[in-house]
Amino acid sequence: MRYYISILLFLLGTAISLYAQDRSGRGGRGGFSLANLTSSQKEIPDSLLQADSATLKSKRIVGYRLTPLLGERYIAPMDTNRLNYGNTTLAEANSLAVGYLANVGSPAQTRIFNERKEERDFIFADAYDYYITTPTNAYFYDTKVPYTQISYTTGGASQNKMDRLKGVLTLNFGKKINIGGEIDYIYSRGYYNSNGNKLLSYRLFGSYITDRYELNAYLSNYNFVNYENGGLTNDLYITDPDNLAESQRNIDAKSFPVRYTDTWNRVRGKQYFLTHRYNLGFTKELEETDEEGYPKEVFVPVSSIIHTLDYEDNRRRFTSKSSGIDTCYTNLYGMDASLNDQTSTWRLRNTFALALREGFQDWVKFGLTAFISFEKRKFRLPAQVPGLDYGSYTQEGSNAGIVSLDFPSSEVYDEFTTYIGGELSKRQGSLFTYNVRGELGIAGSDAGELRVTGDMQTKFKLFKKDATIKAEAYIKNITPAFYQRHFHGRYFWWDQSLNNIQRVYAGAKIDLESTRTQLSGGVESIQNYVFFNSQGLPEQSDHNIQVISARIKQDIMYRAFGWENEVAYQLSSDQSRLPLPDISIYSNMYLAFKLAKVLTVQIGANVYYNTAYYAPYYEPATQQFQLQDENSRVKVGNYPLINAYANLHLKQARFFIMAYNLGSKFVSPNYFSLAHYPLDPMVLKMGISVTFNN
Q: What's the CA dihedral at 256, 260, 262, 267 to 10 degrees?
């Protein structure tokens, strides 16, 4: 049946396209360029890159991203803001509230629940989500001149210096072809013992865009090394050093005792991504004429044949030279003399789609797409050692077999799933737009998995400026991530069957440009929620959990004075399984002015704050954020992270200098980001970003 439906949809699209071509009666001579996009198109793809407008023809560079699976392009904001440059370099800039291990590039998790994404099957990469390129956050470009941007930030003294170098270079070869590359290198020694990290990632990308054929592709690679210490053994070194023995007071942060040293996590990954489409359509004659007096023509796509290929390869290794690390864990699975956990996985997904495009005639008020995806996954884990007790969390997988690998023996798990789906959307116009998308696993390991998402939006003028109201919702029935079901390591070992997770969400957003106000709120219900308990093992909630959230953002601008404010409220119905801070706050007050008409100066201070709660503990052996031990729980929060800064902008260069965590000098020292993981003490940071586009 699916085969016949696909054939029918394709024939229908082809017939409409041929009919439209016959009506036009013209050959193809027009062109499509990203320079034809409207300036109102923003991060959210309310309007894709299909409209013909002269608004951006004068722009020398346009950056865009792609929608999931189908690869439709939409304009994305680029990093060119003159204000708040220094703040964008902090880990805190990734979320209103985030918990991490002090260093930029260290494992991190947002405290705002509705910002958390679905877990990858390779859950070890989730903690580095802010630093990994994916098909939905990758930038592509269309440039009239070569574009280069280089940024460098640093902070701290030689023993704890934190450096980050980022760069992107891209250029066009004619109007159709763009190629480029980018690199991100982080090297941080950290302020605490065995707290450093080194992250390297790079990407090569390109595009080929014509009326009939569109292609976007990239290959990326990353290699992240994180030194692990398991957190402080005694929080009093931060919170109340006067209660320690005299010999333990006033010691350097590098000397604070930690759980272990000489221990590392290495996470590696590579990705090959390609999405391309062939458009069927016709050329439309415009009333305007070109320089030779001929009527201008534009190509109007009617239907598209789409193919997307996405391949990922990931590896994780947890090693240690510490002789005492075994004493930090209750269980020991394995007979090796030292820690050397290894696992690997790869995934290949092919998606084929047929689309009818919106707006090729006045009566076509929506776009319709149907797709089918085939996904193959393979995982390798260490095999059991005969004679060892692996506990009640182990249930032998029926699809596992013993093979040889880099490590002595391994179990191999194969998974394959077929998905079908569709998308109905109206993105043109402003009075009323909507998008509904569904995906269903019909065969294989994830049969029954379901995702249905939708949103609708209206935009109108209020006090001569845009006002937007948007409602959004989703229903999901998700298979738990593979490594939540299977994990084999020296200190943790489980093979268990988990039920599908059901998630239902409904929310709304209001954006009032006239008053600089943004409001949002929502309710989510989760059945069979999977979390990591205080023993570090995955556990599934036996009852429904609800999360209610509300958020307001209010900016105040008057001449040189600026004041940005954002507050989020969250209510978790089960704080014992899903702990969240009740209130999270961000406030930024500054003065911005120009000197000599060319130098923009911004001087101010910002603060991050969240109410105290039982924040999760980061477990290096699994790289997951787990619940704290009930016998030694500590609250994290109720501490203002204050940063004072000066940002400067001169022509194509931006500079900043910042006193980070200034509050540690005069506020009660309780600057923990996660349980037993403190933030850096007060440190001076600085950076520069230079753009070349001429």
A: -110
